Each structure stands twice: as structure tokens, then as C-alpha cells.
Amino acid sequence: MADPKGFLTTPREEWPRRPAGERVRDWDEVYVPGALLPIVGRQADRCMDCGVPFCHEACPLGNLIPEWNDLVSRSDWRAASERLHATNNFPEFTGRLCPAPCEAGCVLAINQPAVTIKNVECAIADTAWEEGFVPPLPPERLSGRTVAVIGSGPAGLAAAQQLTRAGHTVAVYERDDRIGGLLRYGIPAFKMEKRHLERRVGQMRAEGTRFRTSAAVGRDVDAAALRARYDAVVIATGATAWRELTVPGRELAGVHQAMEYLPLANRVCEGDLERSPLSAAGRHVVVVGGGDTGADCLGTAVREGAASVTQLDIYARPGAERDERAEPWPTYPRLYRLSAAHEEARDLRSAPAADADARLFAASTLRFTGDERGHVRALHLVGVDAGRRPLPGSERSLPADLVLLALGFSGPDRHDGLVDGLGLDMEPRGTIARDRGFATNVPGVFAAGDAARGQSLVVWAIAEGRAVAAAVDRHLSGGSTRLPAPVGPYDRPMTA
Fold first, then answer.
1. Residue 81, class by beta-carbon neighbours within 10 Å (0-12 exposed, 13-18 middle, 19+ buried)?
2. Close Cβ partners of 266 (under 8 Å, ≥ 6 residues apart)
3. What backbone phi and psi angles, to 5 degrees, belong to 35?
4. Mean per-residue pLDDT, 85-101
5. What is the percent of the chain where pLDDT is above 70?
6. Looking at the DSSP assignment, which residues form a beta bridge with residue 80?
7. Of 95, 108, 187, 493, which residue is the least packed, with the fewest Cβ within 10 Å?
8. What span is annotated as the signal peptide, if there is one (predicted)?
9. β-bridge partners, 169
10. CA separation (Å) from 159 to 53, 90, 147, 148, 449?
């Protein structure tokens, strides 16, 4: 503990965002460049170095948070980077994208604002790259065993890096034309600029990992032949089967899934397109779904110049304080949070029909109606109670030229032929079945990340990638491994 009184004398201070009117004119990250380092040392001083640090338990990676907080407070960035990378392959991803369950588990959060763990993590990662503290780590010798990793999202990349460093020859197969999976085409650049992804992929190439793009296993690459070619296969394709909204008018033109919309906007940022075919420019947009994907659609539509953007959340507006009975510390509470996208919509008044930050809470979609050409023109909704029952007299309509469905994902997409080509067993909820060692019913085939866990957080995906790598290494070496396994396939976040 660098400052024994830091948690008493120093208030919480977060990485400041650029003014909303400025940042919506570009696709750069929303934060003020260079404004994190001046505050992060003081924030690290707030860490109490608890005897039993619950932030460890709240983080599936088991990040050594008090240790690197202390090192940051002493400006020992090299040692802080070593402690951070000991448990997390990609801290610049989690430092930007993770909702920080570690902060919900911070002991200080019992009665004060938590330590800004996520900001400290991001500062360590960025400083490590700037100072050259994260060189490639190729293996000293090769094992002679080969592994195919299917999917290049955070789970697949983490598994591939761990297995490459263990000495196995690893090839990553990605169905898109660039590596990154959801990190590449699902996450908007204003949340994480793609240079961070490119930097890690470059590191992995230098370590020996091989990448195969535009290679959809099951469609472009025969799944059974791939299995026969490699000593082991890791399936980390993510949960790409989106949930549908079966209401009248769903067939109208202009009603799209969020993951049809977001990748096109990302391709504009990549320079592949001059303009998205689904651009929100000049259109009245309604986003159905109150989660992070819906917020990503909101921020993207605002940047594209939508006439208005409204987001529907079927849940009631949560409170500003933790409900100690329903969600006691150290569980992750459902609170009213203002993301960067919601802040932008509020400040720019992008949703005149909604509440202050563009969201309509406790709202359920009834139907869509369109014009004579079959294009959506309105969304009809109704207010609901806590049991999602319609409230009499609460029906209303919103103008809608573009409707985006952000209702979550159930598991891997069965249409690409991977699951059936390998003959994988599936769980009733649509995910790939696996045992306690991450192994599927097909010998030598393992599954990790959202494809087997179901839709989850980036930090869980990385944790699963690290854990499945340990399972595969054990399988290839005949029963032993030195790779860490931070989570098991049946582990879940802390709940009351």
C-alpha cells in the first residue's frame, strides 16, 4: 500500500471524455488523449491492498490488482506490466471494453466509489506498448504438435497465443477477411480503435501464430478434413446466432439485426466502403434492446447523422445505488449507467421522444408498420410492468425509418456447417456441449468462449481462451501443463 490514507483523502476520478459535440464528428476513441496518466497514479493510491481482495474473485482472469496498483503508484511501469500480463493476454482490450466486475467487487465499494481499476489497467497496457515492455515471446522449442483455432475473437486469440508460447504450431481460422472477430467488426472504433488489435496480432505473428482469413470452417474449409489435419482443434467462434423479434411487420424493409448494421459501419472506418448501405444518416432510428450492443448502435447512428435515435429497454430504469438485498456487494449490480453513447444522445438531444439519454425504459415492441413500398415507417410500443405485462393505455408509436434489433445471441450459427460437419453435441440452449475439461464429444476437439458459454463479457472470453489452452496442452502432452487455467467451463459470475 503506497498511501495508507489514499482511499480516505483522494476522490475517485475517471478518464475524462472529449466533449460530445466534438467526438461524434469522428470515430476516434471517446477519451481525452493523454489525460489518463496524470490521474492514474493517484487513483492507484486509493487501493487498500486488502488482505482478502475480492476484486480477484470478481475478475474471472484473477488479475493481481492490488499488486499492480501498488507498482503504478510507485511509477514502476515495467513491473506493473509484468504482473498484469501474467494473468491477461490483452489488457488494452479489457481496459477499454470490460464493464469492470472487479470494481463492483472492490472492498472500497462497500461504502465509497470503487478504485478505478479499469483505468489503471488501461494505463499499464498502453504504457507497456509505448515503452517496449511487451515484446513477442516465441517458444524456445517446438513440440511438434499442431492446433487449429477456429475463430479470432478474444477467446480464440487468447487460446492461440497461449498454445503458441507453449511450443505448439497454431493456425487461427477466421471467416472474415480480417482477424479480430467481434473486436474487429462488432465493436465500434470509438470504443476501441483497431490499432490496438493490429498491434496484438502483429505480436502473435512474430511469436509464430499463423492466421488464415476468409476461411469459414464448415463452408470454405471442410470441418472433418480440418480435424484430421491437426492434433487438436479449438472452437472459439463466438455466439453469432442472434435472437429474433417475432412481431407483426418484422418482414418490412429497414428492420435489421444489429450485427448486420455494425460491421458495415466498421468497414467504412476500415476504408472498405465510402458509405454504409444501412447508414442512419437523416433517418429516424429505433434500437430495440437495452444492452451494450444497443448502445453501440446508438453511438454509431449518432455519428452517421441520424435524424433521431431512440433505444428501447424492456427493463425498468434501474436505480443509482446498489440494492443491497437483491444484489449485495461484491456482486455486479444493475445500476443506471451513462455510457459514452448515452451521454452523446443526451447532450445532443438525439432522441426527443425518449428520456434524457435516448432510452425508453419498461418498453416492449408490439409491431412495425410501413408504407406502400413495404418499408418500415413506425414502431408501436407499449409500457410494461416488472413482469413484462402490458400497461393499459400506454401504447404509443415512434417514427422509424431504420430499426435495429439488439436482443442478444444464443450460441454459434448452425448454418455454416461447422457444428454438423464435426458432429458436435449441443446444449438445449444452443451452445456447444463440453465436459469439465473443455472437451466436446469429438475426440481432440475443444470449445471455449461464447460458442460454449453463451453470450458473455470480453474478460470471460479471454479467461476461457487461457483455460482451454491449458486443457489442450494437457491433452497434447499426455496429462500435464504449465499453462494457467483461470476458470472452469461451468464457472459463472458471482450472484446473490
1. buried
2. 184, 185, 186, 187, 188, 189
3. -90, -5
4. 98
5. 99
6. none
7. 493
8. none
9. 146
10. 27, 12, 10, 10, 10
